[in-house]
Design brief:
Length: about 130
Amino acid sequence: MFSRIVGCAFESYNFYHENVDELTYEAGFYMELVDAGFIVHRQEEFPIYYKGRPTPVHRRMDLVATDKDLGNVVIELKSINYVGDEQRRQLWSYMKLMGIRFGFLVNFSPKGVFSENWELDEQTGKCKRV
């Protein structure tokens, strides 16, 4: 499943090439995910969970793709030179707050597409790279 998401990211990047903004890459990436058969939520608000219960407070996600086998996957997009711990912590925070097990960080950098897959360990509350 992650390889299908990566393929969609590359298609968007190859169409627009380098040096466009995050929103432009997001537009193409969204269309590629839909064409690949994912159910995709774009810039939608999801409830923050507290002790397993949804609260009335919401967070807006770049993309959340639904896979029939894995469920929801948070996709955090960037268009910057370098991805660091600050961007990873943002994704990890979203995964934890939304109770979503899988996350995907995609950076459309000037040098190409960079991606990381993450999984939330529900027992420890920590995210690990997969």
